[in-house]
Amino acid sequence: xxxxxxxxxxxxxxxxxxxxxxxxxxxxxxxxxxxxxxxxxxxxxxxxxxxxxxxxxxxxxxxxxxxxxxxxxxxxxxxxxxxxxxxxxxxxxxxxxxxxxxxxxxxxxxxxxxxxxxxxxxxxxxxxxxxxxxxxxxxxxxxxxxxxxxxxxxxxxxxxxxxxxxxxxxxxxxxxxxxxxxxxxxxxxxxxxxxxxxxxxxxxxxxxxxxxxxxxxxxxxxxxxxxxxxxxxxxxxxxxxxxxxxxxxxxxxxxxxxxxxxxxxxxxxxxxxxxxxxxxxxxxxxxxxxxxxxxxxxxxxxxxxxxxxxxxxxxxxxxxxxxxxxxxxxxxxxxxxxxxxxxxxxxxxxxxxxxxxxxxxxxxxxxxxxxxxxxxxxxxxxxxxxxxxxxxxxxxxxxxxxxxxxxxxxxxxxxxxxxxxxxxxxxxxxxxxxxxxxxxxxxxxxxxxxxxxxxxxxxxxxxxxxxxxxxxxxxxxxxxxxxxxxxxxxxxxxxxxxxxxxxxxxxxxxxxxx
Length: 514
Prior knowledge:
Layout: H1 2-17, E1 21-23, E2 35-37, H2 39-57, E3 63-65, H3 74-80, H4 82-85, E4 87-92, E5 99-101, H5 102-128, H6 134-140, H7 142-163, H8 167-176, E6 193-196, E7 200-203, E8 211-214, H9 220-224, H10 227-233, E9 240-249, E10 264-274, H11 279-295, E11 304-308, E12 318-326, E13 329-340, H12 342-351, E14 357-359, E15 364-366, E16 369-376, H13 377-388, E17 389-393, E18 399-403, E19 414-418, H14 425-436, E20 442-444, H15 450-460, E21 464-468, H16 470-475, E22 477-482, E23 488-492, H17 496-504, H18 506-511
Parallel strand pairs: 3-9, 19-20, 19-21
Antiparallel strand pairs: 1-2, 4-5, 4-6, 7-8, 9-10, 10-16, 11-12, 12-13, 13-16, 14-15, 17-18, 21-22, 22-23
Organism: Muribaculum caecicola
Keywords: Ligase
EC number: 6.1.1.14
């Protein structure tokens, strides 16, 4: 675990050093749980968004996009349940004066049992080698069985408390498990109480006439209140979907793990409207479709798993998370939910407007059911960064920091470098850049030795480097270097576009999805 924490610290440091993510308001000592994306980070983030957007809108004829406003009528949040129920259970430690989410403290305690089991498995794997049967060991080892039984008992107690919204029981679990404050090391806890996560502000020119509004805590409601607008103007027939990428805001008290949990974040959501009774079929379809989208990036199939919800939200009849293995454990990056007809029914009730769909095939009107796919852009960004970062040992005892980014997501696709800054090489290099830049992001790089330039490009994940030397002026060939293998080959300048574009294009990624 300590090794993973050390690795995560290196990733956070690398993200700042190479222009991916900066602490917001850095020169004023930052603002807690708020981050800015740097010059390379914004390109990587935009490429992730483009991959999602085109996978939704280009590959599905029945999915269209919108961009709804951050400010919405406050009654929307009353209808959706956010005003009354969008809360976190918080607990304070009297000695450290720090505030924590009670559910997170307990989840971390459950994770400790999982870590103990994994350590037992790892020791056994090392002891038995190739003959090790992991499944059998997990089933029959007494120590693993004891740890698993205690873990399951705690998990069941925790799930029941969350289901019943029993704040006293949550506190009692913390007391019984002897969970200590990580700062003070004491167990001097307050009662657990609920805290609403929405940011509120006022709209209007005078204090008396101002209306209380909220920064949206999710983007989904902007889709729901526009569902009929899109359906009618686009002449959409069920089943159909509406996609949106946008900012959301939550006043997280326990924001942690870098950009994994922030107060300002971005979501990629698609709401898919279906006939009542067909929702679970579509739920399973989208569950498989979304996992295939993730795996197409080639970050490692074993890093993904489904986590089906035991406690369903009040609006859902099925829900699962796609979890990704971060340095700090498996964590949710995307949720797929069968939201029933809750949202549309609530908005019809609170607005007084009829927003049902007339189905010409059935010759009847009904409130559609909805399947939601919701992915956090920032969490997706972090999962890509964590899985692609490597400190790779080289010959001679050296190491290189390299980001093995999927080429289609890389901020820079190609860097062109003159071997020396004279003899017409810079001019030839710039000529190549000016030719390639219309097809994919291409950078000109001339500072420092060629080796240091390679290392800089490796660190930001550039798939290809092109070196212009004196032979280039003679026969119009260059050295093309590939990032992951570091292999170099001599190619004609005329071949560059074709060789590079086929590997860095988003099209190649999308074609994997069919």
